[in-house]
Amino acid sequence: MSINWMSKKNPHILAIPWPATGHILPMIDAAHQLALRGITVTFAVTPKNLYYLNPLMSLHNKSTNIQTLVVPLPSHPSLPAGSENMQDVTQDYFLYMVEASSQLHDPILQWFKSHPCPPVAILTDAMNTTWTHPLASVLGIKTISFMASNQYIASTVWSRYKEMKKEFFNGEMLHNTIDSWGLVLNSFTEMHTKSFGFDAFKAMAKHGRVWGVSPLLPVQAAGSERGGPAAMPSHEVLAWLDSCDALEKCGVRFIWAVKKPGKVVENESGDQSVVPAGLADRVAGRGLVIKGWVPQSVILKHRAVGSYLSHLGWGSLFDGLMGGVLLLTWPMRPDHFMNKQLIVDELGAAIPVCEGLDTVPDSAKVAQILAWMKIRDKALNAAKQGGSAYKALDDLATQIANLAP
């Protein structure tokens, strides 16, 4: 991509993701697109999360547009030793991870002061804004908040942490996000109806610097696994899928991705990684149970995959969208229900299967696959040159370039 249109030379930003796979990966995809447009991005990650950047570093190995800042995560008395990612713990540890991450304020401040060409802005996950927004203010630079999830989940998903008597977080984080110089949304304008439009955020922020940059094409590099080493190598999963016949009468073939057993002790959330005893043996030949990280976006694009039963995390929703599969929904947490409200109730582009365990799918609604494919076409068009997401990335890069002295 030509970058002759850039008016400044290599403006520099610091990217600080929230330490969870579903948040790190879309920020990596956004950083890749910004780097292609002439922006230098320094990624601040803790040591155990550095491997997520391998595909990105591989693609940009001949340029200096992608750099890394590896900062050790300070210990926290309530976090299990060695936990640096939300995959290591349950959601009950969320605020402890926030508190541990906030201790990176001073190390990053010192790094900034010693840098010969410091950033003009911090691209921060909204989850981090309780400390990254004040940091940017101290440094005299801009905050650009990145919302990896559906922007309309905030009032519900974050309110649950009030139960932990940490009322400060919900209000402070939302305030700092809205108070940011710019907002980057992991969505695109055509996906949102009037009640789910971007205008609400523009009205709250009182400016027009709101960019819908998705679908972001996943960063893929030869020899590197997206999201780190998979529990089962991609070529083995694809070989299994290649042997499948979608019309086979002996039963539905499936892949069940199960969360890797965590490092935390049993608590009120229960064990989220239990597979019924003997299941793998009983379904051998037609079912594949994988414990841990899986190459989800690759699987969903395979010709043998016809449908996707999803809890409706925002990243998973987009993976299903770009894979062109029939999306079956099973929301479980507050943010999932907000995503279901958009994709099922507002857009009619997915089929609800369960909300808990007391409902069954309505076969008459299979016709909604047509609506889903129309949304997919809009997503693909948004990502193409001249599409809404493509133009939003161009404008974001231009606005960042204009911040450079």
UniProtKB/TrEMBL annotation:
GO molecular function: UDP-glucosyltransferase activity
InterPro entries: UDP_glucos_trans
Record protein name field: UDP-glycosyltransferase
This protein's UniProt keywords: Glycosyltransferase, Transferase
CDD domains: GT1_Gtf-like (cd03784)
Pfam families cross-referenced by the UniProt entry: UDPGT
Family: Belongs to the UDP-glycosyltransferase family.
Swiss-Prot/TrEMBL GO biological process terms: flavonol biosynthetic process
High-level lineage: Eukaryota, Viridiplantae, Streptophyta, Embryophyta, Tracheophyta
